């Protein structure tokens, strides 16, 4: 039961990778990447969680209260916002490929490029 | 068998091996809920007395990990620049933006109210980032989502006019540069890069954190402008072909 | 003392795992982006349960507005092109 949190993070990573490998569409591929990326958030927050801990915001709680780890949260927080622009860049590249080759299928793209 | 089927078949044992490897690695972590990280503990204890910031997460993002966040902010900047380069090149417009006014009054009224609400929530999230959950990153995205309603319930023309490149691009640059300027200001004053110049301020208020507040607003500006540019470029990709098809 | 998962956390984690599986294995991008929205909201719930309100807010604003918007435009654009060819 204790391994569940880490197991879920690992599973999300693996299933996302599988989706990306058998992908038929570059947009589908980009969404699978977001799934793989989200596994890191689940893992980071699971690692940083402390039993009976509260959120590390000292508004209304005493200093020295048992809180969860703020550092892993700050890592996940910025990454989530940055990832949107990175996915947007990937989608823009996919649109460019579609415009030039008329297809969004990674296999067809490889065939057309030779 | 097609390439994809071959790939899928090969992937299963490989991913199985990866799963076993991950299991081996993850089972060495401290059990769930029993992590006692030294740095996390230090930040939790010190962020309020040392930086006068009640939200330890924002204190980590903008202060203890400030230099790192500056790097992340430039990833955002670079990615948006890439999107603009790719999409503006391919979406060259000869006849200017098409006419596509939304005629439903109810939709416009609701959109306007939701726009105000969205922007207000965004500003609130950004403003209280150092006190309660929130901060420049979340607030910026919320502000940009508010502005996008201008397009969805108004018209592309209104959106394009109000958020023209000549206004948005400099705003994004100001946001990105603002972060560096706060860092350099400390350097000029003879302190380490990004050191807190203004003193910690009063905890639990809008002026807590000193120069962290400036960094917070710079990030909010950067993220809001970057996301609005992003939405604008993508919506242009959608609306221009449709409007052209309608015209011809 | 060995701490264990709270039932709420366990339930939330299982829902997240199921949603992630459905997002990754759904072949149609249009259905996938809808599932991705559901997955994002389940992640928000998980983050709140794991005492991370900042991360939950971040995920919330991103998953409800930013992702659907850019991905839907990309889907519309690629469909538009392929219809013309056929």
Q: Summarize the biggest pleated sheet of chain B.
A: none
What general outline of chain C do the C-alpha atoms trace?
Answer: flat
The residue fraction in helices of chain C comes out at over 70%
The pLDDT mean of chain C sits at: 87
Give the overall pLDDT of chain B as a whole number: 84
Q: How far apart are the termini of chain B? A: 44 Å
How many structural domains of chain B?
1
Secondary-structure element sequence of chain C? HHH
The greatest inter-chain interface is formed by: A-B, 56 and 69 residues
Q: Tell me the fraction of residues in β-strands of chain C, as a range.
A: under 5%
- Rg of chain B (CA only): 23 Å
Shape, per Cα inertia axes of chain B: globular
Count helical runs of chain C.
3
- Percentage of residues in helical conformation of chain B: over 70%
The ordered string of helix (H) and strand (E) elements of chain B is HHHHHHHHH
The number of distinct β-strands of chain C equals 0
Which structural category fits the helices and strands of chain C?
mainly alpha
Instruction: Output the structural class of chain B.
Output: mainly alpha
Protein architecture, described:
The complex is a heterotrimer of chains A (114), B (248) and C (86). Chain A is mainly α and 114 residues long. Chain A has a single domain, classed as Helix Hairpins, CATH 1.10.287. In chain A, 71% of the residues lie in helices and 0% in strands. In chain A, helix 2 packs antiparallel against helix 3. The longest helix of chain A is centred in the last third of the chain and has 32 residues. Chain A is elongated and about 65 Å long. Chain B has 248 residues and is mainly alpha-helical. Chain B has one domain. In chain C, 85% of the residues lie in helices and 0% in strands. Chain C contains 3 helices and no strands. At the A-B interface, helix 1, helix 2 and helix 3 of A face helix 1, helix 2, helix 3, helix 4 and helix 6 of B.
